[in-house]
Design a protein that fits this description.
Elements lengths: L30 H14 L5 H15 L3 H19 L8 H4 L7 H18 L6 H19 L11 H23 L6 H9 L6 H15 L1 H9 L5 H8 L2 H20 L3 H6 L16 H17 L3 H18 L7 H24 L6 H19 L3 H11 L21 H16 L3 H8 L4 E3 H8 L3 H14 L1 E4 L10 E4 L3 E6 L2 E6 L6 H30 L1
Antiparallel strand pairs: 1-5, 2-3, 4-5
Helix pairs in contact: 2-3, 5-6, 7-12, 9-12, 10-11, 12-14, 14-15, 14-16, 15-16, 16-17, 16-18, 18-19, 21-22
Length: about 550
């Protein structure tokens, strides 16, 4: 069981805000209450189109019969097409309106509400009200109570994409609420009083409790350990972990914990939570592209903030190459395509930052995209433009959170951007420490020996100050780098700088540490690929000619 039943009662909803009223009473003259009258009256008289009734009946039947193929079709195609046609910027019918259509099916209504509130967050113009934020939280409580508090595995099968979206949306709504409650200056006294009276709604401990409970219930860490050694995960899965619902929710919860700890600024714990996941090989657990992209984004960002630039570059390069190769798969799904495109731009920006701070070779196709889109930004950062570093970090970083509610008594002192500003300050301090290193590197690459005094003149600084920066160069270019094993925290110290040096009697002795790339081999490989493609095309055209004759 998860949580305290006093904190998370099943099938319970808090008092609506503002308080619900009888929609059939006369208008009061208070615009706020009159809007509530009209909203409830419209719901009570709302006529659901027949096509929506048919869809909901079909959707409910598919879930009841546990037909995963039909559920996936309804979830990914039917729901989205009807949304575009009928509810592009307005909410779907409320659960009370839908209930008679689906014979008051308790489980279906919980799942329907999950989609209902998610749609409001994503598409409704003014976003969710405070009441809807609370109701969505209690609906998640009901859903997770149903899954976690059962004596045995519940009889429910859902597509992996929907299971991932549930976990992803759960954390997203927590993130939205945390930011929302910190914007105290825009709230009335009634709203502040209501928030103050309900501190356990969307509490960080509740969210962590859910995710850890799903991980524990599924035995997913033990399954991943066995799976990574070539064994059978079912041998350690237990009664719940053998069930697809619990197994995948457990795996997605690990990724959710990675995201949550990153949003809270705890990058060590974010990577530690994934110790049993091997990022460097494909697995049965990585079949949801959005989950893959989210995982690599937050792992790469955690490496960046821990100054493990080589690992961050490897992580971003791998996932950007994956997106390049699979992007066409998402073009039909507009919302997912937009999200992946935005995440793609963020990761290219973070990769640009990493390569400025720690130059190294990357995949040619990723590098060409980087040059095409971000060359100007990289040039400005290489010249020490701190403002460009700030802008790039602001665009590409996650929306950081405070784990605790604000002090509502100190309204004037509350700044909802404080968690972001703290992380930005940490990042800029690191950048400032090595802002002159690209210039030093460019001079060192021109010489084999160089007097310390001469380089000091080039750099327009004293010899003692230059020695400090040279020591910084040595230190910053040596990173902890992952080499083997499943834990992303493990690694060996390596230097990835293309130049190395030592100082002897005020003379800098410099040596190249990287072997020059053999461009001849690269062109020969490309020629062979071209010839192979040409042969295949000739074979295809010859076969087509025979068929037509």
């Amino acid at each position: 069981m998860w949580g305290d039943q006093a904190d998370f009662p099943p099938d319970y909803y808090p008092p609506a805000y503002p308080p619900t009223v009888d929609p059939y009473e006369m208008h009061t003259g208070d615009p706020r209450q009159d809007i509530e009258y009209e909203r409830q009256y419209q719901q009570s008289t709302y006529i659901v189109p027949d096509i929506i009734k048919s869809f909901l009946t079909y959707f409910q039947k598919s879930i009841t019969e546990q037909n995963v193929y039909e559920i996936q079709n309804a979830y990914e195609n039917g729901f989205n097409k009807l949304t575009e046609r009928f509810f592009k910027t307005s909410p779907w019918p409320e659960a009370e309106v839908v209930a008679p259509i689906v014979q008051n099916d308790h489980l279906f209504l919980i799942l329907y509400k999950e989609l209902f509130y998610r749609h409001i967050y994503a598409r409704v113009q003014n976003g969710p009200t405070l009441e809807q934020r609370f109701e969505s939280y209690y609906n998640y409580c009901n859903l997770f109570n149903y899954i976690l508090n059962a004596d045995g595995p519940v009889h429910l099968e859902l597509p992996n994409q929907w299971l991932w979206d549930i976990i992803d949306e759960f954390i997203y709504q927590f993130q939205c609420f945390s930011i929302y409650r910190c914007k105290v200056n825009k709230k009335s006294e009634d709203e502040i009083s209501f928030l103050r009276a309900n501190p356990k709604i969307w509490n960080v401990h509740s969210v962590l409790n859910v995710l850890h409970s799903l991980v524990d219930k599924s035995n997913i860490n033990k399954q991943l350990e066995v799976y990574s050694t070539g064994g059978d995960p079912d041998s350690v899965a237990g009664e719940f972990g053998q069930h697809s619902l619990y197994k995948m929710l457990g795996y997605f919860s690990l990724v959710g914990l990675l995201r949550l700890h990153s949003l809270l600024g705890d990058y060590y714990q974010a990577l530690k939570i994934l110790e049993c996941i091997d990022f460097n090989k494909k697995s049965m657990y990585s079949r949801v592209p959005a989950c893959q992209i989210t995982t690599f984004y937050y792992v790469g960002f955690a490496y960046l903030m821990m100054r493990r630039y080589q690992d961050a570059i490897r992580t971003f390069s791998n996932i950007l190459l994956y997106i390049q190769r699979t992007k066409q798969m998402f073009q039909a799904r507009v919302q997912m395509y937009d999200q992946i495109t935005k995440m793609n731009d963020k990761m290219y920006t973070l990769l640009a930052i990493c390569l400025v701070l720690h130059p190294m070779r990357i995949d040619e196709s990723v590098h060409s995209q980087l040059r095409e889109k971000f060359q100007d930004k990289m040039l400005r950062m290489q010249k020490g433009d701190i403002e460009e570093f700030q802008n790039s970090f602001s665009f590409a970083c996650p929306k950081f959170l405070s784990p605790v509610p604000p002090n509502y008594d100190a309204v004037a002192a509350i700044n909802h951007k404080e968690p972001f500003l703290l992380q930005l300050r940490v990042f800029i301090e690191e950048v400032t420490q090595q802002i002159v290193l690209p210039t030093i590197r460019s001079f060192l690459k021109l010489y084999t020996t160089l007097p310390l005094s001469k380089l000091a003149i080039f750099m327009d600084m004293s010899e003692d100050e230059l020695k400090t920066h040279l020591m910084c160069f040595k230190h910053k270019m040596k990173n902890l780098v992952w080499t083997r094993g499943t834990s992303g925290l493990e690694g060996e110290f390596q230097s990835a700088s293309e130049v190395d040096f030592y100082i002897d009697k005020d003379m800098i002795h410099i040596a190249d540490t990287k072997v020059a790339r053999r461009y001849g081999d690269f062109f020969i490989r490309q020629i062979h690929k071209f010839e192979e493609i040409t042969r295949n095309l000739k074979m295809v055209s010859a076969g087509a000619g025979k068929t037509s004759s």
